[in-house]
Every structure is written in structure tokens, then in C-alpha cells.
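Input C-alpha cells:
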């Protein structure tokens, strides 16, 4: 059962570290909505499992809380298939499942 479905757009950015990771920030309004159900859907440390879609690529990952919003990691395989990279604006859909 899906607890919440959200659509948003955001710019891909790189978080440097070994290895570099690429994220898109969930905007304020969707982040506020997620925060309202976070305690019911997190599996610890505020991390929330999601199914995400960018273009035709669907993947599972987890949202990470950061500065009052959430970050969605975008896997290299997704970036390759969708031909997107750091600096690109992407349309994202996420499904958050209820436990």
C-alpha cells in the first residue's frame, strides 16, 4: 500500500566524497508532506525507503533528511539510461510505502 505519492522537479548535484554521489533535493512543500508521515515510514535515522522514477527508469532507494528537506540519491545506472548528469533539471516521482 502506498502511503504517499509525490512529483517534483529538481537539479542533480554532486555530493563529493569517496566515491562521488549524485542527488536531487526534494523541494520544501513535498519535504513538509514527507515529514508529516516520516515517523510511520522510516526504518531508522530518518531515512525513508522509496520507489522513484525519473523518465522511464524506476529504482528503489532511500530519502535522506538534510537541512529540513530530503535528498534523493540518483544511481549511476539511472543517470546512464536517462542520459542525465549533474546540473540537469529532472522530473521525479516517488512512492513512499506504508509499513
Amino acid at each position: 500500500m502506498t502511503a504517499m505519492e509525490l512529483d517534483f522537479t529538481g537539479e542533480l548535484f554532486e555530493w563529493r566524497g569517496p566515491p562521488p554521489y549524485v542527488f536531487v533535493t526534494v523541494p520544501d512543500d513535498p519535504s513538509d508532506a514527507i515529514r508529516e508521515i516520516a515517523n510511520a515510514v522510516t526504518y531508522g535515522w530518518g531515512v525513508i525507503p522509496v520507489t522513484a522514477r525519473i523518465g522511464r527508469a524506476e529504482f528503489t532507494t532511500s530519502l535522506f533528511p538534510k537541512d529540513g528537506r530530503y535528498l534523493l540519491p540518483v544511481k549511476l545506472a539511472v543517470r546512464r539510461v536517462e542520459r542525465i548528469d549533474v546540473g540537469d533539471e529532472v522530473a521525479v516521482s516517488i512512492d513512499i510505502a506504508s509499513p
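The mean pLDDT is 92. The CA atoms of residues 3 and 98 lie 5 Å apart.
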